[in-house]
Amino acid sequence: MSRTGLIRTGVLLAALVCLLSCIRHEGHGSGVPLKCSISLEGQEPGGTSLLCGYNHQLLKRFAASGKRDAAIALARDSSAVLDSLRRGALDVVALPYIDTLAGDSLLVTIATDSCGLWVFNSASVQQASRATAWFKEYRNSPDYAIVRQPYFDLYNPMKRVSADFISPYDSLIRVYADTLGWDWKLLAALIYQESKFRIEARSQAGASGLMQLLPDTARHFGCTDMLDPEQNINAGTRMLLALRERYKGIAANEEELTKFTLAAYNAGSGRLRDCINHARHLGLNVSHWENVAAAIPEMQHDSIASLDHIKYGRFEGRETVGFVRQIYTYSKRYHHICP
Asked: Which residue of the set 26, 41, 44, 194 is catalytic?
Protein backbone atom coordinates (compact mmCIF):
# COMPACT_ATOMS: atom_id res chain seq x y z
CA MET A 1 0.00 0.00 0.00
CA SER A 2 1.31 3.47 -0.86
CA ARG A 3 2.28 6.01 1.77
CA THR A 4 -0.75 8.13 0.80
CA GLY A 5 -3.02 5.09 1.18
CA LEU A 6 -1.61 4.31 4.62
CA ILE A 7 -2.19 7.87 5.78
CA ARG A 8 -5.72 7.80 4.39
CA THR A 9 -6.42 4.48 6.12
CA GLY A 10 -5.02 5.81 9.38
CA VAL A 11 -7.23 8.89 9.21
CA LEU A 12 -10.29 6.73 8.54
CA LEU A 13 -9.46 4.41 11.44
CA ALA A 14 -8.93 7.38 13.76
CA ALA A 15 -12.28 8.84 12.71
CA LEU A 16 -13.98 5.48 13.27
CA VAL A 17 -12.44 5.15 16.75
CA CYS A 18 -13.57 8.67 17.58
CA LEU A 19 -17.09 7.92 16.32
CA LEU A 20 -17.34 4.70 18.33
CA SER A 21 -16.04 6.51 21.41
CA CYS A 22 -18.73 9.18 21.01
CA ILE A 23 -21.42 6.54 20.55
CA ARG A 24 -20.26 4.68 23.68
CA HIS A 25 -20.15 7.94 25.63
CA GLU A 26 -23.64 8.96 24.54
CA GLY A 27 -25.03 5.50 25.24
CA HIS A 28 -23.51 5.53 28.71
CA GLY A 29 -24.91 8.96 29.39
CA SER A 30 -28.45 8.06 28.40
CA GLY A 31 -28.46 4.46 29.62
CA VAL A 32 -27.10 4.76 33.16
CA PRO A 33 -29.46 6.76 35.40
CA LEU A 34 -28.24 9.19 38.02
CA LYS A 35 -29.13 7.46 41.29
CA CYS A 36 -30.62 10.08 43.58
CA SER A 37 -32.33 10.24 46.95
CA ILE A 38 -34.22 13.08 48.62
CA SER A 39 -34.19 13.14 52.41
CA LEU A 40 -36.98 14.92 54.28
CA GLU A 41 -35.44 14.57 57.73
CA GLY A 42 -35.17 17.96 59.40
CA GLN A 43 -37.54 19.75 57.04
CA GLU A 44 -40.35 21.70 58.64
CA PRO A 45 -43.53 19.59 58.39
CA GLY A 46 -46.45 21.36 56.76
CA GLY A 47 -44.30 24.27 55.60
CA THR A 48 -45.40 26.58 52.81
CA SER A 49 -42.71 25.49 50.32
CA LEU A 50 -42.57 22.32 48.26
CA LEU A 51 -38.92 21.43 48.83
CA CYS A 52 -39.21 17.78 47.91
CA GLY A 53 -40.89 18.64 44.61
CA TYR A 54 -38.33 21.34 43.90
CA ASN A 55 -35.39 19.02 44.55
CA HIS A 56 -37.05 16.38 42.38
CA GLN A 57 -37.32 18.88 39.54
CA LEU A 58 -33.72 20.08 40.01
CA LEU A 59 -32.29 16.56 40.06
CA LYS A 60 -34.09 15.68 36.84
CA ARG A 61 -32.82 18.84 35.16
CA PHE A 62 -29.26 18.21 36.35
CA ALA A 63 -29.36 14.61 35.11
CA ALA A 64 -30.78 15.73 31.75
CA SER A 65 -27.93 18.22 31.37
CA GLY A 66 -25.62 15.19 31.27
CA LYS A 67 -27.99 13.28 28.95
CA ARG A 68 -29.03 10.94 31.73
CA ASP A 69 -32.28 9.97 33.39
CA ALA A 70 -32.69 10.45 37.13
CA ALA A 71 -33.78 7.54 39.33
CA ILE A 72 -35.08 9.39 42.38
CA ALA A 73 -36.20 7.77 45.63
CA LEU A 74 -37.50 9.22 48.87
CA ALA A 75 -35.54 8.65 52.09
CA ARG A 76 -36.77 9.49 55.57
CA ASP A 77 -33.58 8.46 57.40
CA SER A 78 -30.70 10.72 56.33
CA SER A 79 -28.03 8.70 58.16
CA ALA A 80 -28.96 5.48 56.34
CA VAL A 81 -29.09 7.15 52.94
CA LEU A 82 -25.72 8.84 53.52
CA ASP A 83 -24.23 5.42 54.31
CA SER A 84 -25.53 4.27 50.93
CA LEU A 85 -23.85 7.30 49.34
CA ARG A 86 -20.54 6.48 51.05
CA ARG A 87 -20.73 2.91 49.70
CA GLY A 88 -21.33 4.17 46.19
CA ALA A 89 -24.90 2.84 45.96
CA LEU A 90 -26.12 6.39 45.27
CA ASP A 91 -24.74 9.24 43.19
CA VAL A 92 -26.27 12.19 45.03
CA VAL A 93 -28.45 12.88 48.06
CA ALA A 94 -30.51 16.05 48.46
CA LEU A 95 -31.19 16.98 52.07
CA PRO A 96 -31.62 19.95 54.44
CA TYR A 97 -28.57 21.69 55.88
CA ILE A 98 -26.63 19.45 58.27
CA ASP A 99 -23.62 21.08 59.97
CA THR A 100 -22.02 17.75 60.93
CA LEU A 101 -21.31 16.89 57.30
CA ALA A 102 -18.62 19.56 57.05
CA GLY A 103 -15.97 17.32 58.58
CA ASP A 104 -16.85 14.13 56.71
CA SER A 105 -13.90 13.32 54.41
CA LEU A 106 -15.93 10.74 52.47
CA LEU A 107 -18.54 13.27 51.35
CA VAL A 108 -18.56 16.45 49.29
CA THR A 109 -21.40 18.93 49.82
CA ILE A 110 -22.61 21.81 47.70
CA ALA A 111 -25.20 24.36 48.75
CA THR A 112 -28.29 24.36 46.55
CA ASP A 113 -30.88 26.99 45.88
CA SER A 114 -31.62 28.06 49.48
CA CYS A 115 -33.21 24.68 50.15
CA GLY A 116 -30.36 22.64 51.59
CA LEU A 117 -27.48 20.57 50.26
CA TRP A 118 -26.62 18.12 47.56
CA VAL A 119 -24.13 15.58 48.83
CA PHE A 120 -21.77 13.50 46.68
CA ASN A 121 -19.29 10.76 47.46
CA SER A 122 -15.78 12.26 47.64
CA ALA A 123 -14.78 9.83 44.88
CA SER A 124 -17.21 11.75 42.64
CA VAL A 125 -15.70 15.19 43.16
CA GLN A 126 -15.87 15.79 39.39
CA GLN A 127 -19.62 15.22 39.51
CA ALA A 128 -19.92 17.65 42.42
CA SER A 129 -17.92 20.25 40.51
CA ARG A 130 -20.18 19.82 37.51
CA ALA A 131 -23.23 20.26 39.75
CA THR A 132 -21.77 23.48 41.16
CA ALA A 133 -21.24 24.83 37.66
CA TRP A 134 -24.71 23.69 36.62
CA PHE A 135 -26.34 25.48 39.58
CA LYS A 136 -24.50 28.68 38.72
CA GLU A 137 -25.73 28.51 35.12
CA TYR A 138 -29.25 27.61 36.26
CA ARG A 139 -29.47 30.57 38.66
CA ASN A 140 -28.34 32.93 35.90
CA SER A 141 -30.87 31.60 33.39
CA PRO A 142 -33.76 33.89 32.34
CA ASP A 143 -36.43 31.38 33.40
CA TYR A 144 -34.95 30.77 36.87
CA ALA A 145 -37.48 32.86 38.83
CA ILE A 146 -40.42 31.54 36.81
CA VAL A 147 -39.43 27.93 37.43
CA ARG A 148 -38.58 28.44 41.09
CA GLN A 149 -41.42 30.60 42.40
CA PRO A 150 -44.26 28.06 42.21
CA TYR A 151 -42.36 25.79 44.62
CA PHE A 152 -41.96 28.49 47.26
CA ASP A 153 -45.31 30.26 47.32
CA LEU A 154 -48.24 29.92 49.73
CA TYR A 155 -50.67 27.31 48.45
CA ASN A 156 -53.68 27.44 50.75
CA PRO A 157 -56.41 28.60 48.35
CA MET A 158 -58.42 30.03 51.24
CA LYS A 159 -55.57 32.42 52.11
CA ARG A 160 -54.33 33.49 48.69
CA VAL A 161 -55.62 36.64 47.02
CA SER A 162 -54.23 36.41 43.50
CA ALA A 163 -51.53 34.57 41.55
CA ASP A 164 -50.39 33.77 38.03
CA PHE A 165 -50.28 30.08 38.88
CA ILE A 166 -51.91 27.54 41.17
CA SER A 167 -49.08 25.03 41.54
CA PRO A 168 -45.76 24.00 40.01
CA TYR A 169 -47.70 21.37 38.06
CA ASP A 170 -50.21 23.62 36.28
CA SER A 171 -49.05 22.63 32.78
CA LEU A 172 -49.45 18.93 33.58
CA ILE A 173 -52.81 19.50 35.24
CA ARG A 174 -54.10 21.39 32.18
CA VAL A 175 -53.14 18.53 29.86
CA TYR A 176 -54.74 15.80 31.96
CA ALA A 177 -57.83 17.88 32.76
CA ASP A 178 -58.40 18.09 29.00
CA THR A 179 -58.43 14.29 28.75
CA LEU A 180 -61.17 14.30 31.39
CA GLY A 181 -63.08 17.16 29.81
CA TRP A 182 -62.78 19.02 33.14
CA ASP A 183 -61.93 22.59 33.93
CA TRP A 184 -58.27 22.32 34.94
CA LYS A 185 -58.87 24.21 38.17
CA LEU A 186 -61.21 21.45 39.32
CA LEU A 187 -58.47 18.85 38.83
CA ALA A 188 -56.04 21.19 40.61
CA ALA A 189 -58.52 21.40 43.50
CA LEU A 190 -58.67 17.61 43.70
CA ILE A 191 -54.87 17.35 43.80
CA TYR A 192 -54.65 20.06 46.46
CA GLN A 193 -57.28 18.26 48.54
CA GLU A 194 -55.37 14.99 48.22
CA SER A 195 -51.76 16.06 48.69
CA LYS A 196 -51.45 19.86 49.01
CA PHE A 197 -49.24 19.53 45.89
CA ARG A 198 -46.61 17.57 47.86
CA ILE A 199 -45.17 14.76 45.74
CA GLU A 200 -43.97 13.03 48.92
CA ALA A 201 -47.42 12.94 50.57
CA ARG A 202 -48.32 9.55 52.03
CA SER A 203 -51.46 8.51 53.89
CA GLN A 204 -51.73 6.05 56.77
CA ALA A 205 -53.39 3.65 54.32
CA GLY A 206 -50.30 3.76 52.08
CA ALA A 207 -51.62 6.05 49.32
CA SER A 208 -48.83 8.14 47.81
CA GLY A 209 -48.04 11.09 45.62
CA LEU A 210 -49.93 14.05 44.25
CA MET A 211 -53.15 12.11 43.67
CA GLN A 212 -52.75 9.74 46.63
CA LEU A 213 -52.81 6.43 44.80
CA LEU A 214 -52.61 3.06 46.49
CA PRO A 215 -49.74 0.90 45.15
CA ASP A 216 -51.97 -1.66 43.40
CA THR A 217 -54.10 1.07 41.85
CA ALA A 218 -51.03 2.96 40.67
CA ARG A 219 -49.57 -0.14 39.00
CA HIS A 220 -52.91 -0.96 37.38
CA PHE A 221 -53.00 2.47 35.75
CA GLY A 222 -49.36 2.45 34.66
CA CYS A 223 -47.60 4.36 37.44
CA THR A 224 -44.27 2.75 38.35
CA ASP A 225 -42.82 5.77 40.17
CA MET A 226 -45.23 7.22 42.73
CA LEU A 227 -42.93 10.21 43.31
CA ASP A 228 -42.95 11.29 39.68
CA PRO A 229 -45.55 14.08 39.22
CA GLU A 230 -46.54 13.23 35.66
CA GLN A 231 -46.81 9.48 36.26
CA ASN A 232 -48.93 10.09 39.35
CA ILE A 233 -51.27 12.57 37.68
CA ASN A 234 -51.54 10.39 34.58
CA ALA A 235 -52.51 7.32 36.63
CA GLY A 236 -54.93 9.33 38.77
CA THR A 237 -56.57 10.72 35.65
CA ARG A 238 -56.90 7.25 34.13
CA MET A 239 -58.54 6.11 37.34
CA LEU A 240 -60.99 9.03 37.19
CA LEU A 241 -61.83 8.15 33.59
CA ALA A 242 -62.52 4.54 34.55
CA LEU A 243 -64.70 5.60 37.49
CA ARG A 244 -66.65 8.08 35.38
CA GLU A 245 -67.71 5.32 32.99
CA ARG A 246 -69.53 3.60 35.88
CA TYR A 247 -71.92 6.52 36.47
CA LYS A 248 -72.77 7.67 32.94
CA GLY A 249 -76.03 5.75 33.10
CA ILE A 250 -76.92 7.22 36.49
CA ALA A 251 -75.89 10.89 36.57
CA ALA A 252 -78.40 13.45 35.31
CA ASN A 253 -75.78 15.60 33.56
CA GLU A 254 -72.02 16.25 33.27
CA GLU A 255 -71.76 18.13 36.56
CA GLU A 256 -73.55 15.36 38.44
CA LEU A 257 -71.31 12.82 36.67
CA THR A 258 -68.26 14.70 37.93
CA LYS A 259 -69.60 14.70 41.50
CA PHE A 260 -70.23 10.95 41.40
CA THR A 261 -66.73 10.43 39.99
CA LEU A 262 -65.17 12.47 42.79
CA ALA A 263 -67.19 10.62 45.42
CA ALA A 264 -66.06 7.26 44.01
CA TYR A 265 -62.45 8.46 43.94
CA ASN A 266 -62.67 9.07 47.66
CA ALA A 267 -64.92 6.24 48.85
CA GLY A 268 -64.35 3.57 46.22
CA SER A 269 -66.86 2.40 43.66
CA GLY A 270 -68.17 -0.43 45.85
CA ARG A 271 -69.01 1.86 48.75
CA LEU A 272 -70.60 4.37 46.43
CA ARG A 273 -72.72 1.64 44.87
CA ASP A 274 -74.06 0.83 48.35
CA CYS A 275 -74.89 4.51 48.87
CA ILE A 276 -76.71 4.75 45.54
CA ASN A 277 -78.62 1.54 46.26
CA HIS A 278 -79.66 2.82 49.67
CA ALA A 279 -80.77 6.19 48.30
CA ARG A 280 -82.84 4.34 45.70
CA HIS A 281 -84.26 2.14 48.49
CA LEU A 282 -85.37 5.32 50.26
CA GLY A 283 -87.20 6.48 47.13
CA LEU A 284 -84.74 9.25 46.25
CA ASN A 285 -83.78 10.34 42.74
CA VAL A 286 -80.26 8.91 42.51
CA SER A 287 -79.34 10.84 39.35
CA HIS A 288 -78.33 13.77 41.57
CA TRP A 289 -75.38 13.49 43.95
CA GLU A 290 -76.98 15.60 46.68
CA ASN A 291 -79.83 13.07 46.98
CA VAL A 292 -77.37 10.22 47.39
CA ALA A 293 -75.38 12.31 49.88
CA ALA A 294 -78.60 12.85 51.87
CA ALA A 295 -78.92 9.09 52.33
CA ILE A 296 -75.35 8.61 53.54
CA PRO A 297 -75.93 9.48 57.25
CA GLU A 298 -78.09 6.36 57.55
CA MET A 299 -75.13 4.29 56.31
CA GLN A 300 -73.38 4.89 59.64
CA HIS A 301 -75.79 2.68 61.60
CA ASP A 302 -74.76 -0.88 62.47
CA SER A 303 -78.13 -2.15 61.27
CA ILE A 304 -77.35 -1.11 57.68
CA ALA A 305 -75.42 -4.35 57.13
CA SER A 306 -78.60 -6.41 57.46
CA LEU A 307 -80.17 -4.84 54.36
CA ASP A 308 -80.07 -6.90 51.16
CA HIS A 309 -78.94 -4.02 48.96
CA ILE A 310 -75.88 -3.29 51.12
CA LYS A 311 -72.76 -5.28 50.23
CA TYR A 312 -69.95 -3.57 52.17
CA GLY A 313 -71.64 -2.92 55.50
CA ARG A 314 -71.57 0.17 57.64
CA PHE A 315 -70.07 3.27 56.04
CA GLU A 316 -68.85 6.42 57.78
CA GLY A 317 -69.51 8.57 54.73
CA ARG A 318 -69.24 12.10 56.07
CA GLU A 319 -65.68 12.32 54.74
CA THR A 320 -66.86 11.57 51.19
CA VAL A 321 -69.64 14.17 51.33
CA GLY A 322 -67.15 16.73 52.66
CA PHE A 323 -64.56 15.67 50.07
CA VAL A 324 -66.81 16.50 47.11
CA ARG A 325 -67.98 19.75 48.68
CA GLN A 326 -64.44 20.88 49.53
CA ILE A 327 -63.11 20.27 46.04
CA TYR A 328 -65.81 22.49 44.56
CA THR A 329 -65.01 25.15 47.18
CA TYR A 330 -61.32 25.07 46.26
CA SER A 331 -62.15 25.16 42.56
CA LYS A 332 -64.23 28.31 42.99
CA ARG A 333 -61.41 29.91 44.96
CA TYR A 334 -58.93 29.06 42.21
CA HIS A 335 -61.17 30.76 39.66
CA HIS A 336 -61.09 33.87 41.85
CA ILE A 337 -57.35 33.70 42.55
CA CYS A 338 -56.19 32.83 39.05
CA PRO A 339 -58.83 34.01 36.51
From this structure: 194
